[in-house]
């Protein structure tokens, strides 16, 4: 039976916890509720996509939080979405952005340390394969991080070494019910189709996770090897670096100049590298976030 000792350590403090009502998030909530040094605030977003079922999910989470004597914020999508700008067109990405916005609001309002999410080892394997199929390089194939900063908010994922089946067995053993989202069975979503394939090939799980760990280690090395570029740096500084180290050096420098982290794609990084390496490229260029960069007499700087 899974125990609190089996999950990644979460620092003492006050944390929001995303609870959909599904087995994974309910199991995490109950496991962390056993930790007296952690104070939890339950957060649930009703996506309003399944009518009465979505409403019932929200009510289930509200009742569970009440039973555990935990504060809870239950919100509907139509309470958050109209106040957000430039939402992604992709449905899954849009819902993810709305959830993050709800978490951000709760964390700020309640002065919490961050958010705890219930992504587990099977989610990690699915994420790595999806990114592989979409052509991601080593930076994406490292998978989800157990601890990450998104928009200045700390995100913790303590279940990344725990399998989905372990969480379900835990709930059965303690006699706790949960809610299952019927849309998780729909062939409409690539992740659902991939999930069923991986469930039919359990032998693939460990090789996928091992590849993810190797890529994560490679990425850590790249970040340590990256050059710390000054605000004004000689263009030759990027020319001398191996491609991946140069990209990471460019990423860190552009981020310090104010380019939004979410827009630092490989194409953007390579544009700065080409600007440094090839004197035939335009000497004055605009980067995401309306950041102007120029090259003058062999030096790169923000305009």
Structure description:
The protein has 303 residues and is an alpha/beta fold. The protein folds into 2 domains: 4-206, Rossmann fold, CATH 3.40.50; 226-302, 2-Layer Sandwich (Uridine Diphospho-n-acetylenolpyruvylglucosamine Reductase, domain 3), CATH 3.30.465. The protein is built from 12 helices and 10 strands. The protein has helices at residues 23-33, 52-67, 77-80, 91-110, 121-133, 138-141, 164-174, 190-200, 205-225, 236-239, 243-257, 266-277; strands spanning 13-18, 38-46, 72-76, 114-116, 147-150, 153-156, 233-234, 284-287, 291-296, 299-302. The longest helix has 21 residues, at 205-225. It is elongated and about 70 Å long. 29% of the residues are buried. The model has no long low-confidence stretch (mean pLDDT 92).
- The tally of helices reads 12
**What Rg do the Cα atoms give?**
22 Å
The overall average pLDDT, rounded, is 92
The first-to-last residue Cα distance is 59 Å
Shape: elongated
Task: State the order of secondary-structure elements, H for helix, E for strand.
Answer: EHEHEHHEHHEEHHHEHHHEEE
The residue fraction in helices comes out at 40-55%
Hey, roughly how much beta strand do the residues contain? 15-25%
| Uncertain stretches of 5 or more adjacent residues | none
> If strands are numbered along the chain, what order do they take across the biggest sheet?
3-2-1-4-6-5
Number of domains: 2
CATH fold field value of the largest domain: Rossmann fold
The biggest beta sheet, please?
Answer: 6 strands, mixed
CATH level-4 homologous superfamily of the largest domain: HUPs
- CATH C-level class of the largest domain is Alpha Beta
The helix-and-strand class reads alpha/beta
């Amino acid at each position: 039976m899974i125990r609190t000792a089996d999950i990644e350590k979460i620092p003492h403090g006050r944390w929001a916890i995303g609870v959909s009502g599904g087995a994974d998030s309910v199991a995490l909530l109950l496991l962390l509720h056993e930790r007296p040094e952690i104070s939890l605030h339950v957060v649930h977003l009703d996506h309003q996509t399944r009518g009465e079922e979505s409403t019932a999910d929200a009510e289930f989470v509200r009742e569970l939080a009440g039973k555990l004597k935990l504060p809870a914020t239950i919100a509907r999508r139509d309470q958050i979405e109209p106040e957000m700008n430039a939402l992604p067109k992709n449905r899954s990405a849009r819902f993810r952005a709305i959830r993050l916005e709800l978490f951000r609001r709760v964390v700020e309002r309640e002065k919490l340390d961050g958010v705890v999410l219930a992504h587990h080892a099977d989610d990690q394997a699915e994420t790595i394969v999806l990114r592989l199929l979409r052509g991601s390089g080593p930076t994406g194939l490292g998978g989800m991080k157990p601890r990450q900063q998104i928009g200045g908010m700390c995100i913790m994922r303590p279940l990344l070494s725990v399998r989905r089946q372990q969480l379900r067995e835990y709930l059965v053993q303690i006699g706790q019910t949960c809610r299952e989202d019927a849309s998780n069975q729909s062939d409409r979503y690539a992740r659902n189709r991939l999930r069923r394939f991986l469930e039919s090939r359990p032998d693939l799980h460990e090789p996928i996770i091992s590849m993810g760990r190797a890529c994560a280690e490679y990425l850590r090395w790249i970040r340590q090897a990256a050059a710390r570029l000054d605000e004004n740096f000689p263009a030759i500084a990027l020319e001398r670096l191996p491609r991946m180290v140069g990209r990471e050096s460019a990423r860190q420098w552009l981020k310090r100049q104010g380019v939004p982290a979410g827009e630092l794609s490989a194409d953007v990084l390579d544009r700065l590298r080409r600007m440094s390496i090839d004197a035939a490229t335009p000497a004055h260029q605009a980067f995401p976030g309306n950041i102007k960069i120029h090259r003058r007499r062999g030096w790169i700087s923000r305009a």
